[in-house]
Amino acid sequence: DLDNIVATKKVTININGLISKETVQKAVADNVKDSIDVPAAYLEKAKGEGPFTAGVNHVIPYELFAGDGMLTRLLLKASDKAPWSDNGDAKNPALSPLGENVKTKGQYFYQLALDGNVAGKEKQALIDQFRANGTQTYSATVNVYGNKDGKPDLDNIVATKKVTININVKETSDTANGSLSPSNSGSGVTPMNHNHATGTTDSMPADTMTSSTNTMAGENMAASANKMSDTMMSEDKAMLPNTGETQTSMASIGFLGLALAGLLGGLGLKNKKEEN
């Protein structure tokens, strides 16, 4: 009974119109910067579960390109005048990659593909690698894909653009220590200090030092030789067997001494007689 209306309500229906590929291509070419410089504070406060790495090395809907706290938000020229909050805490409005009030819900997808040792890394693993690399510039590619049955069709690349991203990393104590020259540590070279006992200093001429060193070395060698000689003599005496040969040798030495004394005495008498 069309005349019997039981209930009624007014509603608004928004039908998304199809966005042409040419529109997307022009938007990527005109609205995306060639390079960006990411402040160290952004990376320092970024969290793996937050929006910072959304769309980086993985595919998400194109309309999410420039949400608050996202790295890819910084790629849009419109971000220069837009607010930013770390991890999207302030829930600032997202920016449209196609321009104001242009929506492409479910029609296109995108990713920012990084090169180098950060390629393929996502979320916390990517943030950790950024921090480990220190301040560095990366090459990357913005790829926009079409859809197939409402899902990204990675074989259908609608638009692409090469960009350069410089990630600044806050310097830490480890980074500062790593900047020391290897020649300043572990060289094994110890500077000569002043010797209060001898009065020598590190300014002593090289020839004087060499001479002193040689003299000391010679004295030490001589002392060592004498000590070795005395030791050997003592050892020889201790090693000699206690036989009659030893006594005979000693007696022979005694007789020889007497003979020499007599000879010298005789020569003395002869000289005395000649003088007389």
UniProtKB/TrEMBL annotation:
InterPro entries: Fibronectin-binding_SSURE, LPXTG_anchor. Residues 190-214 have a biased composition (Polar residues). It comes from the Bacteria. Pfam families: Gram_pos_anchor, SSURE. Residues 177-188 have a biased composition (Low complexity). Residues 240-276 form the Gram-positive cocci surface proteins LPxTG domain. Keywords: Cell wall, Membrane, Peptidoglycan-anchor, Secreted, Signal, Transmembrane, Transmembrane helix. Residues 173-214 are annotated as: Disordered. NCBIfam families: LPXTG_anchor (TIGR01167). This is Fibronectin-binding SSURE repeat adhesin PavB. It comes from Streptococcus pneumoniae.
